[in-house]
């Protein structure tokens, strides 16, 4: 849709400059905003279910809140909640605001990547010959 609109209505400067702003907003920003809103509603529903499950458990109150906090931090980048919360920053043309948005985006994305790196570091790679080849170690067959 964007390519068709761009080719017919704003075919200038090898498409590096947006002279007709509504094309960008209708074909790119609006669908992204709608999908972010839908993902945010899914996120709220999942957090609601987590709260209901944690209320029904028998563990201590402080442990319940800790579990809820950890679960929520993992779900924020998974559902793209930070895109919904930081929507106004991503549409700014100010350089400093864009840098703040990029920094916050990377901070939220790290919540999802961190547990994956921890899990990968616990795997025993020394027994895997393919891993040894990847890191450049020599393999001798006996």
TrEMBL record:
G-protein coupled receptors family 2 profile domain segment(s): 1-112
Gene Ontology terms describing biological process: adenylate cyclase-modulating G protein-coupled receptor signaling pathway; cell surface receptor signaling pathway
Gene3D superfamilies assigned: Rhodopsin 7-helix transmembrane proteins
Coiled-coil ranges per UniProt: none
Subcellular location field: Membrane
Keywords: Membrane, Receptor, Transmembrane, Transmembrane helix
Stored InterPro entries: GPCR_2, GPCR_2-like_7TM, GPCR_2_secretin-like
UniProt-listed Pfam families: 7tm_2 (PF00002)
Membrane association type: Multi-pass membrane protein
GO cellular component entries: plasma membrane
GO-annotated molecular function: G protein-coupled peptide receptor activity; peptide hormone binding
Highest taxon listed in the record's lineage: Eukaryota
Residue ranges of the TM segments: 32-51, 72-89
Residues making up the signal peptide according to the UniProt record: none
Name of protein: Secretin receptor
Organism of derivation: Portunus trituberculatus (Swimming crab)
Phylogenetic classification of the source organism: Eukaryota, Metazoa, Ecdysozoa, Arthropoda, Crustacea
